Amino acid sequence: MEFIIIFLGIVVYIFNFYLGFAQNSLIERNLYHSDRRFSFRRINSALALAKKEDQIKALQKARKIYSIYLIL
Asked: Is position 57 within any domain?
């Protein structure tokens, strides 16, 4: 039983890390124009892309699983 709880904790930790990394790289990729000039319009579009509905749901699901793990 303890092995299952530890294994689930590791899986959830890796899942959270992957989601955070994917979201950050998505934002960083869209921060600059092709000529690499800083652009506030690009920041806004990158943040809009990062706030997609499916990513928000996936993050909420991961947090819910993690909170259940913390309770155990």
From this structure: yes
Number of structural domains (the chain) is 1
Burial label, 31 (beta-carbon count in 10 A; 0-12, 13-18, 19+) = middle
Overall average pLDDT of the 41-55 stretch:
63
3-state SS, the chain, equals: CHHHHHHHHHHHHHHHHHHHHHHHHHHHHCCECCCCCECHHHHHHHHHHHCCHHHHHHHHHHHHHHHHHHHC
pTM: 0.32
The verdict on residue 38 lying in a domain is: yes
Rounded to whole angstroms, the Cα distance separating 2 from 38 reads 50
Task: Identify the domain containing residue 53 by its residue range.
Answer: 2-66
